[in-house]
Amino acid sequence: MTKLSLSKFDFSIGDGEPLCVMAGLNVLESEELAMTVGHHLKAVCEKLGLPYAFKASFDKANRSSISSYRGPGMEEGLKILAKVKAELGVPIVTDYHEIEQAVPVAAIADIVQVPAFLCRQTDLVVAGAQAVEEAGGWLHVKKAQFLAPWDVKNIITKVGEVTKNNPTILCERGASFGYNNLVVDMLGIPAMKALGVPVTIDATHAVQLPGADPRTAGGSTGGRREGVPIIAKSAVAAGADGVFLEFHTDPDKALCDGPSCLPLDAAEGLLTDLKAIHEIVNR
């Protein structure tokens, strides 16, 4: 059985568990927006009987342009995430980018995320693994766009060598396919699950068009938000244990990756479909 549980919450992912939902904002824009999105998604997941964790980044460190919005930074961002966690009573998902950030991030975030571009940075992965084990959380590792699904076994091994109970979840988010494009090989979902850890799908970032936003002449990443439901449904049908999704009250005005995120009012319909598919696959 491949399953992980958070002792602080009634929250599990893996074999025999409901579809796990990690969803929220791409990046923190304001406390008010975070609360609005978090409350809505929590209510939807409670209605559907799905475990819910709020996600948002405090810093988007890998922007195409130096002038792109990155977020409020770690200090202010963690304060906002702590308030969301206290008010909603749900786990928090956020990423870290530097070794020194691992411990303070794991003190607030129950699910600490390794960005795709950094998943082969041994010291970063080890620092995150040790921090989440100490805090009782999970390490959500985005599979890099340049890695084959079976090659992530080395990441799992690294985490296992520095923790007693390997707390790794792998996340599929597409592979580079030529220039300015990503594709998702759904056969990669069962291939990663065969490594003995839960697997999620980041359907939002999987529809990115890196460096190809026509609004900024390549100064930012484009996207195809109409593809998010297609990727999410396909991945759940292929056996994904959880979904990673980003929403906004007004996606076209989102400060980061607007072309890839969904309107908040689309959440209930999509999650209803995903729950049904997951239940069929796991009968």
Automatic annotation (TrEMBL):
- Which pathway is this protein assigned to? Bacterial outer membrane biogenesis; lipopolysaccharide biosynthesis; Carbohydrate biosynthesis; 3-deoxy-D-manno-octulosonate biosynthesis; 3-deoxy-D-manno-octulosonate from D-ribulose 5-phosphate: step 2/3
Enumerate the GO terms in the molecular function aspect. 3-deoxy-8-phosphooctulonate synthase activity
Xref: SUPFAM superfamilies? Aldolase
First-listed, main subcellular location of the protein, grouped into a coarse class: cytoplasm
Question: Known Gene3D superfamilies for this protein?
Answer: Aldolase class I
Record localization: Cytoplasm
Q: Which ranges carry the DAHP synthetase I/KDSA domain?
A: 10-277
Principal EC category: transferase
What are the alphabetically sorted keywords of the record? Cytoplasm, Transferase
- Enzyme Commission numbers on file: 2.5.1.55
Family note:
Belongs to the KdsA family.
Any idea what this protein is called? 3-deoxy-8-phosphooctulonate synthase
Source organism per entry reads Ponticaulis profundi
